[in-house]
Write a structure and sequence with these properties.
The protein is mainly beta and 170 residues long. Strands 1-2-3-4-7-8-11 form a seven-stranded antiparallel β-sheet, with no helix packed on it. A two-stranded antiparallel ribbon has the order 5-6. Helices cover 0% and strands 57% of the residues.
Length: 170
């Protein structure tokens, strides 16, 4: 292994965020990012394999599109406590994870849906019934070449799960 300068890359894009409180009970928000990230010139060391020549390829870990839409709604206000429902949907377009650009290290696009039902008190106590990856979408946030194969890393919410979360502010 030799450390070398990566060469030159170019990244252009746009990001946006929006939030609207449509009533005392409902807040809608969202954000998006469009990124056009490319390898302009990669400096391969002398005698490097042909897989080192990746000029014009996509930059790793840089999906073209990412976005999230959220809704938070207060179902009940009980004086010093509230009951809330929250939901979000996130999207990430296909992503290349290897500088060598093999097709096996491209993760396909995916969409995830999460939701929670919360009880929150004025003194900082909160209990949440949470649902993660409610659509049960299998995805990987990282793929890596390993020998002749590919290692697929999976996050905790690679499969749908339901849980309870307790929180207290001091």
């Amino acid at each position: 292994t030799r450390l070398i300068n990566a060469g030159k890359v170019s990244t252009r894009g746009v990001e946006g965020d929006v939030s609207a409180r449509t009533s005392d009970a409902l807040t809608l928000s969202g954000s998006f990012a469009y990124t056009d990230a490319k390898i302009d010139h990669f400096l391969c060391p002398p005698g490097a394999a042909s897989s080192c020549f990746v000029d014009g390829g996509v930059l790793t870990f840089a999906p073209k599109w990412k976005g999230v839409v959220r809704a938070n709604y207060r179902l009940l206000s009980l004086g010093t406590s509230d009951v809330l429902i929250n939901a979000d949907v996130t999207y990430r377009s296909r992503t290349q994870y290897s500088i060598n650009q093999p097709p096996d290290t491209v993760a396909p696009a995916y969409t995830l849906w999460n939701a929670s039902l919360s009880y929150r008190t004025a003194d900082g106590f909160e209990i949440n019934l949470i649902g993660k990856n409610l659509g049960d979408k299998s995805y990987s946030p990282y793929l890596q070449q390993f020998g002749q194969g590919v290692t697929r890393f999976v996050p905790r919410d690679d499969q749908r799960y339901i849980g309870i979360n307790l929180h207290k502010d001091f």
